């Protein structure tokens, strides 16, 4: 005991000496121009943290090897409950006997409440492993997220862990969220399968969550890939990086080296869509100078200006608006328009009646226009010949200068016909002459 006290006193005196020396060094460094903070000033060496310790290793609970609780059992009962969706009720009823048997081997009691739609797990007097209740909690969470029971029961093993990543609130737009979620799955699940092979994890995308089962390192990699995908970074880039890392892990020479020179860096390029104002103004000035030089070189400037100002052509040049520092006049609001028309002082029923009357008048006008258009189809319009129009209606056809179809077909022969020509007879004459021409051509 005295040796321990003496060693403690020596360590305290050594620490005081080191603290004094540190204070002196701090004063010297403060006086110097370059002030650098020593972040390792108060850090001590941890004798229990040696390089030969594997912090990722999980030690299983083995009662045969002497792993027992003090007192032989847990002092208090621990329980966890979770809700499940309605569509999982039928499947859970079918596999609940399997879940009960698996949890019973570890001394865990489970309950399925179909009225409330919940699953509950709790410890019993037979529970010997204090951590198994947390594994049972993870089990019911995975069952609620549509993972099959045989796969979810693997989480009870000591080397299997799980994580449920919530992705529902990472993207506001629903359509964009669905696109990025489908991008994570890939065509026919190819992207998800590649991620499973590289991380040695089981991944299931269901609704607004991504369920992952595997080791701690694999779950960490999957979480980073999923979150990057929701931030609009394609999973293919991260998959390529993971493939390179897996190949580098096989080489023992590169164990203690930095791998950044081997890994690809995918930086997001900020493409400037809108050009700066100075560049736009400079190009505009260059264009104006080129146009003025071309205009001065032309000899026929007057004719070109006359063509541009012709009434039939529209000028392509935009007129520059005169700059005014005052804002445009404010447009009248809906209430102002109602006050002008007098509609503001009407009751709600009178407004509806007025709108209904306006709709009826518009519909009546449309129906009348359609009726007139249908009637015009049955009105006979006589055919005018070009020769009669040129001659003013003298010598050919009727007194109005009109010629029928028969007159045109006869080559200008005089025929006495009324203005109202029978359309059926004209069609018959046209068809007879058409077949007569065909017969002459064949002969």
UniProtKB/TrEMBL annotation:
This is KRR-R motif-containing protein 1. Its main location: nucleus. It holds the Pfam family KH_KRR1_2nd. It comes from Discostella pseudostelligera. GO terms for cellular component: nucleolus; ribonucleoprotein complex. GO terms for biological process: rRNA processing. Residues 1-15, 292-309 have a biased composition (Low complexity). The keyword Ribonucleoprotein applies. Keywords: Nucleus, Ribonucleoprotein, Ribosome biogenesis, RNA-binding, rRNA processing. SMART domains: KH. Belongs to the KRR1 family. Residues 17-29, 45-55, 278-291, 351-379, 412-432 have a biased composition (Basic and acidic residues). GO terms for molecular function: RNA binding. Residues 161-231 form the K Homology domain. It is found in: Nucleus, Nucleolus. Residues 1-68, 270-339, 351-443 are annotated as: Disordered. Signal peptide: none annotated. SUPFAM superfamilies: Eukaryotic type KH-domain (KH-domain type I).
